[in-house]
Amino acid sequence: MAGCADGTTTEKKLSAKQMLDNANKAMKALKSVTIDTNTVVTDGDDASTHLTTNLKDRCTSTTTWTTGARLEQIRIGGTDYLHGNRSYLERWSGQDRPARRARITG
Known about the structure:
18% helix, 2 helices, five-stranded antiparallel beta sheet, alpha+beta, elongated, 106 residues
């Protein structure tokens, strides 16, 4: 770190190995990790994702597109569970147009 007055360093510089060892020690101490991302698509559908894992056997991810489509994924052990909302299913159904919604009458 540079000093305020004359630019001299006030801390001992760490070697690359020491920095890597410190990073590995910090990573091993983690109990969970959360990652938030935003994807901006030129002339397309932007998306945001929220992912959380306990770094062992559980992971959840939710991706939401600006169209309102949403996909939730949960992994518990070796099993994946997926849930897409209606907008997601219509988007990825392979049909040229959205599926016709059933009309419920009372």
